């Protein structure tokens, strides 16, 4: 029943720039991802100290979900995200610390789905969540998974997408699937929106 | 609402016994399995207590007819408990219907991998221990040992909820008509990896763990494997099976609080208990006993106690934690305690909350320490 659902809103983060529904809302000339995130944090006056403890993947997912969830009243919003690199960036960091003394603060981020936990904690979502690793953006799995959650009434809305981070290269595309919205929830739309901006 | 999904077999090996009967005897005689560590040479050996399975790897290898030092202890425990469960369910041909396997583990073959860690660079002889590291290794070995062919077999590694999730997935697959029978449970052997990890989290007690006690200092790690055989109503009827108990309700939930700690007010546990009761179609006041997770860490027991108060309000049923007997068996905890709960139902008993000293600042923590017989209905 794909035609029953719509894309309510979407966001992108790429090349040190953040977009909300296709419009650029922040950009910075930062030397690295960490300073880009810090600049964005300041710009949006986020006031959320836990942000600085997060690994890069969690920061990316957190920052991309923020414009979508800030004014979202529906708390039964499930989270379904995907990427290619899993938590490799943090896994490598953890491996390096093993030469000296491994840090539990790094270790807890050596799973990609921890970023879903960070979003749940920030927005107090007690909803379903799942994280999958694919070779590339895979709209059909996301599409089917979101529809199944909505059809079976496990969730009222689903925040879906792609959040990938490795070697400073970051690529986030998130969207909320809902019972109302501008775009039809279809593979064509997902492919098109992923490629813009 | 149907009767639920039938449990027709159980198997367990833990610090308090090598099979279901021995475990039950220890439980009703308040015999703990917690002691100083004897099988792992760790620098923490004088600082911690653990729940070790008594049998040595050599004894398992003899019993299972295996080559010496070929498997991780996780697999040895797993196959032993899974075989007991299948034997109790009196399964003659495991492939006579769609039989699945869902097994939980957190450490996999880490016990061997860490032992030979420095040898991989030196020689190829140790490579089998790295090949046996992954979580699916013990699942594959169980499937092979039980003679499962072309069946649905999967591994769940969700930390201390692994086996609970395995039971849940198995029950859901039977309900959905995807499987007719499924062996569900988990296995985790002790390893330096877990001991050091929990030491770093600073939640290991240097004394016998004391669930729900006001002065609790943390947990003792334990090792175990346990499995249930779940069967559909059709198979139960076809084979005239004796049903030990039913899996009626289940749920998991997001606590939205912290990566490793539970929320102080037990949000996630409340949601999970409420959803499980809803799936079962039961009211809270029909519950006679709660076998709590009760790891004896300050955080867990507070969170869980508050969750019990929120779900059951003025009628909190009798509850106890059996971690003081077995230690925290990590991935296996959910199924160890499922086995204990079925035994509690069959024998109308509530197990003692060992090592608890009544203080009664808060009345729900005033559980008796001795075994309790409940009146049968």
Structure, explained:
The complex is a heterodimer of chains A (197) and B (377). In chain A, strands 1, 2, 3, 4, 5, 6, 7 and 8 form an eight-stranded mixed β-sheet that branches. Chain A is of the alpha+beta class and 197 residues long. Chain A has helices at residues 33-43, 56-69, 88-97, 104-107, 114-123, 139-151, 187-195, and strands spanning 6-14, 17-20, 23-27, 77-83, 129-133, 157-166, 169-178, 183-184. The mean pLDDT of chain A is 95. In chain A, 36% of the residues lie in helices and 26% in strands. In chain B, helix 7 (162-175) packs across helix 13 (333-347) and helix 10 crosses helix 11. In chain B, 36% of the residues lie in helices and 14% in strands. The longest helix of chain B is centred in the N-terminal third of the chain and has 16 residues, at 73-88. Chain B has a single domain, classed as Thiolase/Chalcone synthase (Peroxisomal Thiolase, Chain A, domain 1, 3-Layer(aba) Sandwich), CATH 3.40.47.10.
The gist of it:
With 197 residues, chain A is of the alpha+beta class.
What attributes characterize this protein structure?
heterodimer; A: 197 residues; Peroxisomal Thiolase, Chain A, domain 1; 8-stranded mixed beta sheet; 7 helices; 36% helix; B: 377 residues; alpha/beta; 6-stranded mixed beta sheet
Question: Secondary-structure blueprint of this entry?
Answer:
The complex is a heterodimer of chains A (197) and B (377).
Chain A (H helix, E strand, L loop, with lengths): L5 E9 L2 E4 L2 E5 L5 H11 L12 H14 L7 E7 L4 H10 L6 H4 L6 H10 L5 E5 L5 H13 L5 E10 L2 E10 L4 E2 L2 H9 L2
Parallel strand pairs in A: 4-5, 4-6
Antiparallel strand pairs in A: 1-2, 1-7, 1-8, 2-3, 6-7
Chain B lengths: L4 E9 L6 H9 L5 E2 L14 E2 L5 H8 L8 H16 L10 E6 L5 H6 L11 H5 L4 H11 L6 E4 L5 H14 L5 E8 L3 H10 L19 E2 L1 E8 L1 H7 L5 E3 L19 H14 L8 E3 L6 H15 L5 E3 L2 H4 L6 H15 L1 E2 L21 E2 L4
Parallel strand pairs in B: 3-7, 4-5, 4-6, 10-11
Antiparallel strand pairs in B: 1-8, 1-9, 2-3, 6-8, 12-13
